[in-house]
């Protein structure tokens, strides 16, 4: 191969490589609607503070200090699950030992794992808490989820 032809071949190969690497003013183009919230896949669970998977529980240890009992679910398996029940915990002894506070729990942020889903967040609200117990630690509770 003669020298001018070898130089031309090297230049052609270099230009081809630059063209395939993606140099240039091209911008990423995205089409279509935004993704929808995660939909449940298979059975839906919520894990208690010990990591036990539960379906529509009537009782759940939400944190190491708070428990909800007498839960009645208005919705389950959707992006948000809502129930009413009774709230008690070590933070309200002795007032709530015999008379737990009426409360609402909302579960959200479904996470899919193979053929099941888990709620990963919980929020508890109660208008009946004493002023000193505002329930701030129950506004965005991260729920345990088993390892996939």
Structural notes for this entry:
Helix content is 16%, strand content 35%. The mean pLDDT is 81. With 148 residues, the protein is an alpha+beta fold. Strands 1, 2, 3, 4, 5, 6, 7 and 8 form an 8-stranded mixed beta sheet that branches. A hairpin with a 5-residue loop joins β1 and β2. It has helices at 3-21, 95-98; strands at residues 44-47, 53-54, 60-61, 66-75, 81-89, 101-113, 116-125, 141-142. The chain has 2 helices and 8 strands, in the order αβββββαβββ.
Features:
16% helix, 2 helices, 35% strand, 148 residues, alpha+beta, 8 strands, eight-stranded mixed β-sheet
Characterize this entry briefly.
This protein is of the alpha+beta class. 16% of the residues lie in helices and 35% in strands.
Summing up helix and strand content along with how strands pair, one would put the structural category as alpha+beta
Q: What is the number of beta strands?
A: 8
Mean pLDDT: 81
Largest sheet descriptor:
8 strands, mixed
Tell me the fraction of residues in β-strands, as a range.
35-45%
How many H/I helical runs? 2
Shape: elongated
- The arrangement of helices and strands along the chain is HEEEEEHEEE
Radius of gyration: 28 Å
Separation, N- and C-terminal Cα atoms:
59 Å
Uncertain stretches of 5 or more adjacent residues: none
Tell me roughly what share of residues is in helical segments. 10-25%
């Amino acid at each position: 191969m003669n020298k001018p032809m070898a130089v031309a071949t090297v230049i052609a190969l270099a230009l081809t490589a630059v063209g395939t690497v993606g140099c240039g003013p091209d911008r990423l183009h995205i089409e279509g609607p935004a993704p929808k919230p995660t939909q449940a896949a298979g059975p839906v669970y919520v894990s208690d503070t010990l990591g036990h998977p539960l379906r529509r529980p009537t009782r759940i240890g939400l944190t190491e200090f708070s428990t909800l009992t007498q839960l009645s679910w208005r919705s389950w398996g959707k992006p948000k699950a809502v129930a009413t029940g009774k709230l008690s915990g070590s933070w309200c002894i002795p007032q709530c030992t015999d008379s737990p506070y009426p409360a609402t729990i909302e579960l959200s942020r479904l996470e899919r794992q193979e053929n099941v889903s888990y709620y990963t967040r919980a929020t508890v609200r109660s208008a009946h808490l004493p002023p000193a117990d505002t329930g701030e630690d129950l506004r965005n509770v991260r729920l345990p989820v088993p390892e996939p």
